[in-house]
Every structure is written in structure tokens, then in C-alpha cells.
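Possible regression after last week's pipeline update?

I re-ran a chain I had predicted before the update to compare outputs. Posting the input and the new output here so someone can diff against the archived version. Not blocking, just want to make sure nothing changed silently.
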Amino acid sequence: MTDTSSNTPPVVGLVGLGAMGSGMAQSLRRAGHAPHVFDVRPGVAETFARDGGTACDTLAALGAQCDIVVSVVVNAAQTESVLFGDGTTPGCAASMKPGSLFVMCSTVDPNWSVALEARLAAQGILYLDAPISGGAAKAASGQMTMMTAGTPAAYARAGGTLDAMAAKVYRLGDSAGAGSKVKVINQLLAGVHIAAAAEAMALGLREGVDPDALYEVITHSAGNSWMFENRMAHVLAGDYTPLSAVDIFVKDLGLVLDVARASKFPLPLSSTAHQMFMQASTAGFAREDDSAVIKIFPGIELPAAKGKAS
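New output (post-update):
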């Protein structure tokens, strides 16, 4: 374990080199870390490590070598596997040293995150509830947002590691749960905004409005949103390469509704948006970019592919 009283930087490991995780690992490397990395896809970690860092063959190896483990996987089930294994191979928790830190960046049920903090504390492992937002481009440039909550000891162990990956690191509470609650609310807005943007563009297409002109006007008018500006650019380019897939919002809006249902809180817009993403998923667009929710609208002709959208 790295001596926290010295100026020696902590050894940081990152699990999950997907759209967000790869950018975060690059940001760590740019900040002077030589991150240990693991990904379930063959060759992905090795490719990253060619430019600096260490590819780990197993999660147990990564856990044993790192002071801080950052997990950037899709959901709670995958996080469980990262920590506790899949029944055949161990996860990283068994090999992490007492006083090391696990940073959980997935969108999960806040109650699950609270319980995970307690489980890890029983093993002497510190925990930060730290969901992320901003997209792949901001992750790669170190400009994303982290919504964090955890004990003072967990923040002390993290040091400057969070700031190496994110431009905004919000400290929302002194125990787990608050970060995940804020992320769930963010995903409510993100999903509803994408669905509303798709509906607006679909109506424009149905009414014969030039889609490029509509995009130009809306992005300079009061009806604009970040999601309209970002996602409808994909539609105009005819590029549904999944930066964030339809099924991500099937999952995340489902989680939003689960959280609200537990306290009997009505979410009419979230419910409608969730149904739209469900319809897109079952229509065959599950793994396309979430802007493909526009494909559920009948009687419109979508722009043809013009090249890859940013």
C-alpha cells in the first residue's frame, strides 16, 4: 500500500475500458498516473497499456496492486462481479488491502450503494459512491462530472485522483447514497430530454420542415436543450453508432421509476419516456445510439447517413 504521508502518488486501477472508462484511464495517464487496467474484452487492456500503464490479466491481480480501484461498468450486477467475482473467478475485493479505496461510477439504486459501502467496510475497504456524467468526449478530456458521496476517510484516500478524471467533483454527503440519488435524477432529465428532442424532430420531419434548418433554429432558441443539440446532430448525420445505447435508458429510466415507486412518487414524463425507449428497444434498435428512439415515430423519412456524428 502506498504511504499516504509521502508525495508518492497512489497506484490507481481502472476496470472497464468502455466509452467512459477508456477516457478516464487516459485522463489518469495524462495526470501522471500509470494506471493498472482490466477489461473483460480480450486485448483491450493490453492495447491501452502500450502507451503507458499496466494491463492486468485478472481482477484479483489488479486489486492486489492498487491503492484505489475505479469501477466503470454498466450496472450493479457488473459491479458485484468486479468486486466479488462471478462464481468461477474471484473479484478484486478479496485481494484489496485494508485502507484501499473502491470508487463506484455506475448508475445504480441508491439503496444498493448504501449497502455496498457497509459490505466493503466490513472488509476494511473504503468506498465512494461516484456516478459520472458528461459523455465519452468529456471523459477523454478530463472534463466530465462526478457526483460523489462517502466518508471523510474515503475522500482522503482518493486525494487528487478524482480531480485527475473530472472537471467537476461534487461532494454530496458523508456516506454513500447521495451521489447515486443525484445521478438518478440526472438520468430522469437526460432520458426525458432525449425523448422530447426526438419527438420534436420527428414532428418537424412529418410537417416537411428542413431538418437542418430546424436544428439551426432550435439550437439558437429557448426550446434548445443540451440533449437536443447533441443527439439530434446524430439524427441529422444518420449515424446511430452507440455512444450511449437505447438500452442504457431502458435501464436507467427503469431505475428512476423503481426509486420513485418505492416512495409512491408519480413521474408521468419519465414513465412515457421509458415506454418510448422500450418501444425502440423491442423494435430492434436496442444497441443503437439512444437518439434512435426517433425511429419509433411512423410516417417520417429520417436523414440518410452523411458520416459519423461527433
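Follow-up from reviewer: compared with the archived run. The domain at 12-175 is CATH 3.40.50.720 (Rossmann fold). Marking as no regression found.
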